[in-house]
Amino acid sequence: MKRELRVGLAAVRRRPALLLAAWSVPEILPTACYGLAVAHATDAFLAGRTERGLAWLGGLVAAALFGALGARFVYRLLGDLVEPLRDELVRKVVAGALRNAQADGALARLNRQVEIVRDTFAGLVLVVRSFVVTVIGVVTGLLSLSPLVAALVVPPFLLGFLASLGVLGLAAARVRASLRADEELATSAGMAFAGVRDLTASGGEEFAAGLVGGPIEAQAAAERSLAKVAVLRKLCFAIGGWLPLVILLAAAPWLLSRGVSTGTLLGGMTYVLLGLQPALNTVMSALGDSGLRYVVTLGRILDTSDVPAYEPGGRLPTGHEVRLRQVSFAYGPHAEPVLRNLDLVVPEGDHLAVVGPSGIGKSTLAGLICGLLQPTKGEVLLGGVPPSALRVGVRVVIPQEAYVFTGTVRENLTYLHRHATAAELDQAIEAVGASQLVRRVGGPAAMIRPSQLSAGERQLLALARAYLSPAPLAVLDEATCYLDPEAERVAEEAFAARPGTLIVIAHRVSSALRARRVLVLDGSHAMLGSHQTLLTESTLYAELVGHWAPPARLEVSSDQIQPAS
């Protein structure tokens, strides 16, 4: 809990927080005055001094107006206080998801849990502020009214409040279970929705219902368990909210015998009924529901989204040679391996094309090289360091579905090289053949939106971005599949001439013919060599060149890899 509070406080800006506290002071005045005003007005009316009683009530109205002015500025400052926390959490969730491409529940954390934290934090700020203002005002008023009455009211109130804080620890585990059930339900529902057409067409509705039904029941059970905590909160409220009133009523004869007036006794009851009871009820509901959800949800976000800081004194890459040692990979513990016992070395400056039928594991190999996937067995090294441990720009990958965001052309092309000059930008655009596209949209300063670009145009922008990147290893994972053969040739020749290493996951044989070496994944062999070697020794490569049908088996073994010529 301390960590979550530190994160929340760290994201709060000091100036809005100080202004919020300053504008809360006027609200103390009406809270402190209404018990006094009721007490003195009652005594005045009982003594026949009507004008004096009305004056006290008029003063109470004036104090309330002064407090309302402070409340108005408090709400205006709330956004400046809360939004920095949301921004910080969004950065953490996105960074964690990018660092772990297979992170489960990242979408639920970004779409729902961050909003839960933001909204509950805003509510907690208001509730806790109001509670503190009320308690300070009530205690001040009670002491001014009668220290004896204050001694009877304040201790049971504090006892009930402290007991309610103890209940929070009992509820924490149940809130965590509710959040885990929520993530599992979001994941299961997403899987079912993604395949709804196939499930409907194949009569798999019952399977989909079973897939989602379990998480739904688990979430419902977690919510029912959480609701039981409300009984304990009611007991705490009875101690802190109603017991002071019972004590005050029971002690009324004794107080009157000690010189306490009827108005003073009524004023003390007013402080309990209109001040302490509502404040305690509100803060207990907020801390027991929103507060607990805030702490647990924020803890969940931090646990799953923290990105380890890069340690400069740790292992640093020495160059960018790619080396795979007995690498196997399977999508799940019971799935057949897509790659099995693969050994591969891609020296610095090489130009390697990976060919093979669809589904054979070419994109999987690219994901392993770039650290997007972790091998089931074996080791992948990039410059002697596992790719997942790298925190520097050693490699850049361009996937089939190119990433373009709403912004200027320059912003889209330079975010991997922030300090690129205008000449470097123009040279990258020209090299990959994107000049005509950039001129058509209005130049580097023009705004673009992904929906307004074709898939091929998005690929050209992604290629220019990767070309401009200082990363010495470029991996093109079918990154030109939406380009025509001539545009593909221009882009691949530009990357081949670019300093560094190029690995191309080829979808056309022409890409393999332009490469210095070719890795053929054929379902039962993995063969590495030059074009001449593979044309004579690899049946699949000859079939691919001749546009023949590829074999069906999808299994790769390293024991028959041939050395490069």
Order of helices and strands: HHHHHHHHHHEEEHEEEHHHEHEHEHEEHH
Quaternary structure state of the chains depicted:
single chain
Count the DSSP helices.
19
Q: Mind telling me the C-alpha Rg?
A: 34 Å
SS-derived structural category? alpha/beta
Poorly predicted parts: 308-314, 546-565
What key phrases describe this protein's structure?
565 residues, three-stranded antiparallel β-sheet, alpha/beta, 19 helices
Describe the overall structure.
By secondary structure, the chain is an alpha/beta fold. 64% of the residues lie in helices and 10% in strands. It contains 19 helices and eleven strands. It has helices spanning 2-11, 14-46, 50-99, 106-145, 147-194, 196-201, 205-227, 229-250, 252-257, 262-305, 362-370, 409-414, 422-431, 435-441, 455-468, 485-497, 509-514, 531-537, 539-545, and strands at residues 322-329, 339-346, 351-355, 377-382, 395-398, 407-408, 447-448, 473-477, 501-505, 517-521, 526-529. The strands form three sheets. It has a six-stranded mixed β-sheet, with helices on both faces. Strands 2-1-4 form a three-stranded antiparallel β-sheet, covered by helices on one side. A hairpin with a 4-residue loop joins strand 10 (517-521) and strand 11 (526-529). Helix 2 packs antiparallel against helix 3 and helix 2 (14-46) runs antiparallel to helix 10. The protein is elongated, with a radius of gyration of 34 Å. The model is unreliable at 308-314 and 546-565 (pLDDT under 50).
